[in-house]
């Protein structure tokens, strides 16, 4: 193995520490405690795990945390009523509605009901538009975490060829916007892309956000490239479930210059950035200076 392993877990601990220090300052100087409300509809086991770890991380950073667990058959009206209540609650600075939602709920309607200033996921159309035009917004946590790791590793990203595999609204598209804002030359690939292997081989920065276990092998990776593996896939191996990414780590790490592992890469950074966004939202709500190094 030649690649440097980008330690997302370690970097996330640093970000969380910075968040905790900012929270302490907000409490001491302004008497404000940032607060995050997470809404979970239904009983998806993976979502329950994420929601629990988000709640734990929020409390550890010294912030207030609220979990709203609703039945799988909750009506749109009831969910929108809860969001309205959280929008109007001054103690709540961030609202996250865990995705995916049950099929009878339209995620666009639900997300766009969140006050954009409290939309710590950065999924509201206002935030998407602000990011797309290079204005101050709330930035989606997973792409923000990837960007912070890339900047930490490379310094400037200007002029680098970035290829993102995946065009979802929550990962691929905002990742492309952020890398474009940092002056990368950006290609977004997806399931209809022709000769994906060749497209990937052109990447100085390769971001995989597909949801297919170990889909990207080492011979798609340009020697020395930086590989960011967003994929979180649960697979059965030797009678146990384990997590693997969208990149075949064994072969890719022999070629890449640097690579994020799964677990311990992008996932922990996502949670750290959620905390960072909550503190940013709180600071903006009170007209206070924003914490340094925690936004795009
Ligand atoms: N670490 C973290 O914090 C997070 C991890 N994830 C993980 O990241 C992965 C992606 O998530 P998400 O963006 O929500 O997924 P989506 O399913 O919404 O999007 C997947 C994308 O991959 C593309 N794709 C599918 N198959 C292929 C293929 N064979 N070749 C090329 N492209 C393909 C799809 O193309 P098309 O549009 O053409 O269908 C689509 O654009 C998942 O494993 C998810 O669990 C997600 C969020 C946070
Ligand atoms: N509104 C919304 N916002 C999200 O940000 C959101 C969402 N919905 N739905 C689901 C995805 C997925 N996601 C992850 C967060 C942390 C880890 C994480 O911490 N992973 C650990 C491993 C955790 C484990 O062992 O299961 C790691 O990669 O090391 C993974 C995935 C956020 N998402």
Automatic annotation (TrEMBL):
Binding site for NADP(+): 166-168, 232
InterPro entries membership: Aminoacid_DH-like_N_sf (IPR046346), NAD(P)-bd_dom_sf (IPR036291), THF_DH/CycHdrlase (IPR000672), THF_DH/CycHdrlase_cat_dom (IPR020630), THF_DH/CycHdrlase_CS (IPR020867), THF_DH/CycHdrlase_NAD-bd_dom (IPR020631)
Coiled coil: none
GO MF, any single term: methylenetetrahydrofolate dehydrogenase (NADP+) activity
Protein name per its UniProtKB record: Bifunctional protein FolD
Domain (Tetrahydrofolate dehydrogenase/cyclohydrolase NAD(P)-binding) ranges: 140-284
Subunit comment: Homodimer.
UniProt domain Tetrahydrofolate dehydrogenase/cyclohydrolase catalytic: residue ranges: 6-121
Pathway membership, UniProt: One-carbon metabolism; tetrahydrofolate interconversion
Keyword terms, alphabetized: Amino-acid biosynthesis, Histidine biosynthesis, Hydrolase, Methionine biosynthesis, Multifunctional enzyme, NADP, One-carbon metabolism, Oxidoreductase, Purine biosynthesis
Annotated source species: Paracoccus aminovorans
EC annotation from Swiss-Prot or TrEMBL: 1.5.1.5, 3.5.4.9
């Amino acid at each position: 193995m030649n690649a440097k392993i980008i330690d997302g877990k370690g970097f996330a601990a640093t970000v969380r520490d910075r968040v905790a220090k900012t929270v302490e300052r907000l409490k001491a100087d302004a008497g404000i405690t940032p607060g995050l409300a997470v809404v979970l509809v239904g009983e998806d086991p993976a979502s329950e795990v994420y929601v629990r770890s988000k709640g734990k991380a929020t409390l550890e950073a010294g912030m207030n945390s609220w979990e709203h667990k609703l039945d799988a058959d909750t009506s749109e009206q009831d969910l929108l009523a809860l969001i309205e209540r959280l929008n109007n609650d001054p103690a709540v600075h961030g609202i996250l509605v865990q995705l995916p939602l049950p099929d009878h709920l339209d995620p666009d309607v639900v997300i766009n009901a969140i006050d954009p200033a409290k939309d710590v996921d950065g999924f509201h159309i206002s935030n998407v538009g602000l990011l797309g035009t290079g204005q101050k917004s709330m930035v989606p946590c997973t792409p923000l975490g990837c960007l912070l790791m890339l900047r930490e590793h490379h310094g400037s990203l200007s002029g680098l060829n970035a290829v993102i595999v995946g065009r979802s609204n929550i990962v691929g598209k905002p990742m492309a916007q952020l890398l474009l804002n940092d002056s990368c030359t950006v290609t977004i690939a997806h399931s209809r892309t022709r000769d994906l292997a060749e497209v990937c081989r052109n990447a100085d920065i390769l971001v995989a956000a597909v949801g297919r276990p170990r889909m990207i092998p080492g011979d798609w990776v340009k020697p020395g490239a930086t590989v960011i593996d967003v994929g979180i896939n649960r697979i059965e191996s030797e009678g146990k479930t384990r997590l693997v990414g969208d990149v075949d780590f064994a072969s890719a790490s022999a070629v890449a210059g640097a690579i994020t592992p799964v677990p311990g890469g992008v996932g922990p950074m996502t949670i750290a950035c959620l905390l960072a966004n909550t503190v940013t939202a709180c600071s903006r709500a009170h007209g206070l200076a924003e914490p340094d190094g925690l936004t795009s």
